[in-house]
Every structure is written in C-alpha cells, then in structure tokens.
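User: Hey, my collaborator sent me this sequence without any context and asked if I could get a structure. I don't really work with proteins. Can you help?
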Amino acid sequence: MEEDLKKSVLKTGTSIVGIVCKEGIVLAADRQTTVGNITINKNTKKIVKINDYLVFSGTGMASDVEMIKKLVRAELRLKELKSKQRPTVKEGANLIGMIAYQNIRQMSMLPFVAGTLVAGYNEDGSFELYSIEPAGTVTKIEDYDANISSGMPFILGLLERKYRKNMSVKEGIELAAECIKASTQRDIGSGFGIDVFTVTKDGIKQVVEQEIKTVYVGN
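Assistant: No problem. I've predicted the 3D structure and written it out in structure-token form, which is a compact way to encode the shape of the chain:
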C-alpha cells in the first residue's frame, strides 16, 4: 500500500535551473506536473515569489513545494515584524533547509521530498542563489545549479559547456531558456512551457512566459 501511495502522488517531475550572472540571478523552470507516468497538468508555475525580495523554484512532491511556500512566507513576515528588520536571502534559504530537515525525519508513509532553488536580493543590493536538497542541506551557488530536478543531467551537461563567469543577465536568460528546452526534449518529466525570472537591483521580474506546443508534421 505504501508503494502504491508513493506512485500515485502528484509530482512536479521538473526541470529547474538557477544561474548566477554579473548583475543578478536567473531562475527558469518548465511547467509539467505528473501523477505516476501520466501528465496531469501542463501549466504548473514552478517559480514562485515568496515576497518582494525572495523567489524560489521547487522540484519533487507538489504538495511539499506548496507547503514550503506558505510556511516560509509566513515565518519571514513574522521575523520581520519581531526584529523590525528584513531577513536576508541566506536566512530565507536556511529556513527552508530547516523545514526540510525536520520534516524528512518524521515518521510518515509519504516522507517530505522536495528540493528548492532560492534566489533573492538583500537590502545592501547584493543578490544570492541557494540550493536546498530534500534532506535540508543549504548550499550557496556561485555559478549554476539544477538541484535534484529530473532534467538535471541534461541541464548540467549544457551548462558545463555554455556557462561562463560574469555573463550578463541577458545572456543568462537566453542560456536558462536553452537549458529548459534541452531538458524537455529528453526528460519525460519535463515539458509544455518555460518560465524565466530575474533577480536584480530592479527587483524580481518574470521575463519569459512561453508555452511549448507539440506540432505534428506529415511526410
């Protein structure tokens, strides 16, 4: 029964990627959601603004990703009200890591399984990208990462060849979109769309919102 439950859980499958650029961070993701081997949703937004200065993208069980968003948004707001000071990007990432660490160690038929990429900008104008794996380890990313997404092998293979340090945000947007396109061609858990967000001194913006359609071509 436990195995049947795990197979029927709504999962994001997922291709996500975060790229550190000279003037900011670029996050990108696909839109496919699956249950077992069935595509259940073709328009899932996997990059979510937590607040005005923090954005994250998740991979794994859709319910876990959704719960992280709600908990972190509330906890950071409470912290800000109590301390009269806005939390840093690092504090937001560590909060997600703590939630993951605590939940995966609780006895459950369906353990917490979600990996996240967190990007944001601090009050001093600096910007940061963090990767949090499902067990709670928080890692600051200096170049790029795709977390544990199912499209990760295809994304990292492309980035190994194409990424260069201090690339512009514009170049990062183009590269992130190419990463998602590449993964959706080979990864059965990814597809149907591309969303790209940027984190810069101008704030958090969605710069690409693209649907991927299947086109049948006759002989």
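In plain terms: The CA atoms of residues 86 and 100 lie 22 Å apart. You can pass these tokens on to your collaborator as they are.
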